[in-house]
Amino acid sequence: ELKVEQNPLFLSMQEGKNYTIYCNYSTTSDRLYWYRQDPGKSLESLFVLLSNGAVKQEGRLMASLDTKARLSTLHITAAVHDLSATYFCAVVYSENSGGSNYKLTFGKGTLLTVNP
Amino acid sequence: DTEVTQTPKHLVMGMTNKKSLKCEQHMGHRAMYWYKQKAKKPPELMFVYSYEKLSINESVPSRFSPECPNSSLLNLHLHALQPEDSALYLCASSHLGNTIYFGEGSWLTVV
Prior knowledge:
Chain A is 0% helix and 57% strand. By secondary structure, chain A is mainly β.
């Protein structure tokens, strides 16, 4: 069974500071997602990481993937209040070799609060 | 167009009611999913449909009954639910093995 562990679960940051959220997973996977969720809203796709060494950046967020270490990071640069939300990593796992039974397993999420 | 449309956005139902949640996508995706999310928890997979056939059922109680009438539509029929079934129900779709897009969700309250 695939396990996805995220840490920290709670992160209180000051505006302007940098921080990193970590996502470890237990089984080989070739696809990892980062989602953002605002209170009362659905999931917004931030990044899809497809291969070892993949790095993607959008604004103040940068995500990377190390498939050998089974680790992804979401780095926040110079945080601003608008980044306050819950961030989930999610890992794709296929139950069969044909790849038709895809499961997306989520970490517990990181509640990020950016304070002035 | 990367839109997955869910209706209704909010639903309040009694424990003896029968209701349905609906999901629609026009991206040509052949995989569709139902997830359940309780407050302050991650989404949990309920069902996966692949080419309109149920391929994964994560041991969901029979009071939840999924249906995929065609490649664009996914329904979740609800009957005799319990208050603990109150949650956000998320529909998603994807090409097999590609980016999974989520709808806005249906907020369900069982009274």
